[in-house]
Amino acid sequence: MRIVTLFFLTGVLFASCEKDISVNLHQQVDKLVVEGKIESGRYPQVVLTRSLDYFSRIDPAQLLNSFVHGAVVTVSNGSKTITLKEYAGNAGGGTPLFFYSADSMQLGNAFRGEVNMTYTLKIVADNKSYEAVTTIPPITLLLDDMFWQKARSKEDSTKARLIVRIIDPPDLGNYARYFTKRNREPYYPGLNSVINDELTNGTTFDMGVDAGVDRNKKIDFEASGYFERGDTVTLKFCNIDKATYDFWRTLDFAFSSTGNPFSSPTQILSNVSGALGYWGGYTVQHKTIIIPK
What we know:
Blueprint: H1 2-15, E1 32-39, E2 45-50, H2 60-65, E3 72-76, E4 81-83, E5 85-90, E6 96-101, E7 118-125, E8 128-135, E9 142-150, E10 159-167, E11 175-182, E12 188-196, E13 204-209, E14 227-228, E15 232-240, H3 242-256, E16 276-290
Parallel strand pairs: 1-16
Antiparallel strand pairs: 1-2, 2-6, 3-4, 3-7, 5-6, 7-8, 9-10, 10-13, 10-14, 11-12, 11-15, 15-16
């Protein structure tokens, strides 16, 4: 809503020469932002940051200062609770990343994600408590096959589309999120990275999969969905629960519509009480294909 209002007020400002208009944009109180996941066969991982004001100037120093350190982060599977340890890592391209995960010195007491298990995340940071629950669902949307097709345009003769075949069970209410890895690049999610079976329930269907994108870089929206001939592509296809689906569905839409004054305001649906972000469980399937030149 603030974006539309800002464009409207800008128009009024330039249309009138009779009166000065002062716009008071209230500074928002920062909130905890949680990006937490637990994948099948892997230890939990949680990234904690503080939200930044919409109109603030963002630079590397400010991003670095947004990480939350010294929080108490625990994960429970119902019978065992582990306290995560803070680590410093690299998000790629020299960008620092701080995250919480299982203590490597006490892995005997830790646990990895298991299918059909429910996990409770608890966070204590800045004398405030936050909590979220997720489930690692069974494989319902089954990744059956993957193949490629030539791009239709002659101008795109070196490009290819990725197609997957999904088997969906007769029970409604299945959700998935995907990532692609091209050659030696990291896994990146697609611009619209989640699907559900509202229209495909109980069928076997083919679906085009756009190449994942690095959202920290400028994106060419017309060319971003293609792969290049000669690429080795690995698809990471994850079954997720509805809360994780709702978070990424709304966030993907908000990201794609950024800068469009005619788009509807989108509320990002978080499943972390009192915070922004999500705590999600992933059941992971992989397939790899080599697209010939």
